[in-house]
Amino acid sequence: MTAADLHRSEAPVFTEDFTGTWIAFIHQLQDDICAALQASDGLAKFEEDVWERPEGGGGRTRVISNGNVIEKGGVNTSIVFGKVTDLMRSQLKINGDSWFACGLSLVIHPLSPFVPTVHCNYRMFELYDEAGKVIDRWFGGGTDLTPYYLNLEDATHFHQTYKNVCDAVDPSLYVELKKNCDDYFVNTHRNNERRGIGGIFYDYKRPDATKSIDWWFAFAKACGYAFIDSYIPIIERRKGLEFTAENKHWQEIRRGRYTEFNLVHDRGTIFGLKTNGRIESILMSLPPTVRFEYNYQPVPGSEEDTLLQACLHPREYAN
Amino acid sequence: MTAADLHRSEAPVFTEDFTGTWIAFIHQLQDDICAALQASDGLAKFEEDVWERPEGGGGRTRVISNGNVIEKGGVNTSIVFGKVTDLMRSQLKINGDSWFACGLSLVIHPLSPFVPTVHCNYRMFELYDEAGKVIDRWFGGGTDLTPYYLNLEDATHFHQTYKNVCDAVDPSLYVELKKNCDDYFVNTHRNNERRGIGGIFYDYKRPDATKSIDWWFAFAKACGYAFIDSYIPIIERRKGLEFTAENKHWQEIRRGRYTEFNLVHDRGTIFGLKTNGRIESILMSLPPTVRFEYNYQPVPGSEEDTLLQACLHPREYAN
Questions:
Q1: Which of B249, B295, B297 would best serve as a mutation to test chain A binding (most A beta carbons within 10 A)?
Q2: Is A119 one of the catalytic residues?
Q3: pTM of this prediction?
Q4: ipTM of this complex
């Protein structure tokens, strides 16, 4: 699907070229990330489902499963739009006449408990008045890591990659976006345990006199491509390690926490469910195999407990 | 914990003997159901965790796992109370000064895909004014079956048991409560697929001129004990059947739907999370092992598809 395909009668009138530029970026990023992941996996191939949303727009869902490295993963893009509904007004606090959203969303669940799960999402949202004029626009995105065992080399590499991207454009940005991430991916119902060890996260970033549309576009592009630099080297370092049934068991317990966060707290999931998104693409994020055991607690001082403590107490990893 | 133990300074003043009667019933039902399930399992034993809720009350969580029949199960009671919070007012639409709730909640996840999962819950809720006078009281409850393969003998036996209980006191009741159940346990985000094949469900039942407090108490008692009659014979008929890895795989896919319902839609779970309930007792309901596969569809016309169709299209099983 190209930007041109979207200029159907139901689509909002895109009053600025930027919308098309954003769409092209998102699709190119999808292609490039899929190529990098597929090369690193070495066995499984992405399969694509192109879907249409009855109310407007659609997406390209690309899934991969049962690979050498990736047990289940998806790198999805969507371009969705429509009239602002009462449900969106009341529950999502969205005003205006019609809306548009385009982004990439990715979740990789590796087979090995020694390779972390990773998630990233980069998106732009626009609101239009009745004449189709853009009345609001914001950017959001982020990448976060969910390891099953804490490896400081990996954690530092991951965070440092994003800190470098942030520092290059605004020295105060990483601190803010890292804290956002630590504050967002939280299982509040589990004593504020984080889903993982964080990364960066931003949302509702509106262009202003200091940071223009082009600034936020360039930043999203830098972060989006930093995914490859931040994650592929971790796969390469850890994919050959042997693991035990106990390691896998612990991974599945932690995947239970991932499931809880996504279904109970995640705004992206809730937005998808409230806007009649494609359910298989939204819930693609759920892990392939999961365990829920009553009151499971790792042995204090164990490697598993070290990871749990890292999720309970966010800290600095980058230099 | 007895009703007397609850008469601490923080507890609401129970102005009527009925509250204590209800508590005694709930605890006796817990004992009797645990005894019946343990006898049928023949291997695993229930273990009890008694817990206190900082804001008032507590519970008895009884869990069983890795049995001959039961892979994971819990039969829990709780007695919880406190001041009505702003969160409860805005999100749960609860008024009054303080509240009290006591009930039994049970979920059994069998090892065999040929033994259905079952859930039941019987509860009473009271609201008090500032003087501790009861200003509102309602009853809720129900039992529902979630098979992995549709067995008409089992489905009919299960529904007939509850229809008989209902018919004995009000010939119009079963139709209403069966419909409530079909309308409640729905994954609205999955084309209104039901969690299972239903049972009965009622909520916000306030005593009135036709049906007194005693009437609703007797009804809850009859339904609560009907659990044993409705479910134990199904275990006995199916527990010896051999099953394949494919049968287990399908069970784990369906358990994914169970997880989605409980975390996204279930009012009991949401109430627990909003009222600082004991998280391990609330999430005890989640299945032990679960699979989430992208866009999994059973083969049309297969036994798995027959079950799926039964979940998509509720029907009558009782005579």
A1: B295
A2: yes
A3: 0.93
A4: 0.92
